[in-house]
Amino acid sequence: SQPGVLWLHWLGEINGDRDEYLSEAVTLAGKGVVSVLPQGYFPWVPDPDGTTGDVTLVENQVAALRAALDRLVAERSVDASRVALVGHDYGAMYGALLADSDTRISAMVLQAPDALMGNWFAQFWLELEGAERDAYLALFDDLNPVDHTARLGDHVLFQWAGKDVYIGQEVPDAYAASSPDAHVETYPTSDHEFRDDARVARIAFLEAQLGL
């Protein structure tokens, strides 16, 4: 009987693919943890185009990650009651959506998720403003990560970076309001990419949650 972890990477210039968490997965493998590290598709490959097709792509990405979770728990040695999820940036946002709808996930670590799924699409790809921006964001009303993290209560760890240019204080505040029982750690000298101190805390949290 072994615990499992699903690792969901960020969208960034350094390790912005399934290798982001590889070293942590290897570390935990030495303690009997089985890991799956899927590659993200949207918006890593296609760009948002500002239509309802973006909502479909988000829903399809969640479905693909659920398939990766299926693969993880299909391992004969994996204890389905001890499965965690770790995500960063878009990986964290998708992770929140998946964990809320799939009770096989019993703990999760979320690094610097935005509160609104469409926010970065609107800002960095589409450059929308005013009513046009509001209408686009409304397409994602049922897919905003901030509304999907409360189910796991104190089995959630949020990690925030003090020098994050993409995440304003209103975002951690929104998650604190929606998930008041979650654990929260802030790293004053880290940026959106994070550094080793967050890694140490993340491993310790997973060890405690998975009973290692």
Report on this model:
There is one protein chain. By secondary structure, this protein is of the alpha/beta class. The protein contains seven helices and six strands. It has a six-stranded parallel β-sheet with strand order 2-1-3-4-5-6, with helices on both faces.
Summarize the structure.
The protein has helices at 22-29, 53-73, 90-101, 119-126, 130-138, 170-178, 196-210, and strands at 2-8, 34-36, 78-88, 107-111, 156-161, 183-187. It is an alpha/beta fold.
What are the low-pLDDT stretches, counting only 5+ consecutive residues below 50? none
Radius of gyration: 16 Å
Q: Report the average pLDDT across residues.
A: 97
- Relative strand content: 15-25%
